[in-house]
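Message: A physicist's question: would you kindly supply an amino acid chain plus fold tokens?
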Amino acid sequence: MAAIIKVENISKEFRIKEKEPGLKGSLKSLFTSKYKSIDAVDNISFNVNKGEVVGFIGPNGAGKSTTIKMMTGILFPSSGKINVINYDPQKERKKLAFKVGTVFGQKPQLWYHLPAIDTFNLFAKIYEIPEKQYQQRLKELIKTFEVEEVINQPVRKLSLGQRMRCEMIASLLHNPEVLFLDEPTIGMDIVAKKRIRELIKNLNENDGVTVILTSHDLEDVEQVCKRLIIINNGKIVYDGSTKGIREKYLNFKIIQVILNEKTESLNLGLKNVKAVFKGKFRHVIEIDTSKHPIQEVVKKIVSKYNVEDINILDPPIEEIISRIYQNKTDHKDQKWD
């Protein structure tokens, strides 16, 4: 299948102004400026085929959003080439805008004090969508995203989940071929996250939209993406199947337990269970799910202790990256996905 996105050896360097502390440093910076260079993205390459849903993850400052902004033409790479739907994003950004949609979870495009429908009407004019086609497309999207009751309310009065669904409608009015989603579920509750994930999957399966998804939430990526790219310190450390990352690196879970009585430690009588934190009431353990199913461990905890609350978490992305590095060090001759 032909690649719809081609990223070849791109790098992005930022020059950051440095200032010495105090009044003296402030005055000195007025006459002499000192800069340091930071490599936000460091010589990365990858292709995305038409119809793929690709998860693009990494810790804060890893280079995820910078890469997305270069692929959409917002930022210029310091070196390298990018081709999106046969357009150069930096030279042909206006043409590309008619072919892609973007949603930045922390940077809304809807007018805050006006109803979402006003933004939709404006975008229809910007994208030069014929009126009849626009009304038909809008009707379809409103039904799909279930926002009939809220599009005439000021955006400021919407819940985070409702606002994000409206944000996605605004990005899909012109039938884009590629949809860039940067942290679309940030700050949402479990129910809202699940709904957004379902909508992304439906868009891909029913409309054939190619999706690039960045997120700190590993469950977002696992539920939606078949392919995963992990970036850290501006470099790609993993590019392969989501299933592969689970089999290699996500075979452990973190369980946080809050008890109603003081307990020095959780004695479950199970091997491959590691105590991460021991408190008077709160305990955190790490389990190897390839050795013990999560249900077995939870059942053991609940039957043995008076539990007030229990949470099951994925390991932090930083921990997964650390394990990837460790595994590569231990298996230098192994071929990686």
Observations:
- The chain has two domains: 3-13+42-247, 251-313.
- Residues 161 and 192 are 5 Å apart (CA to CA).
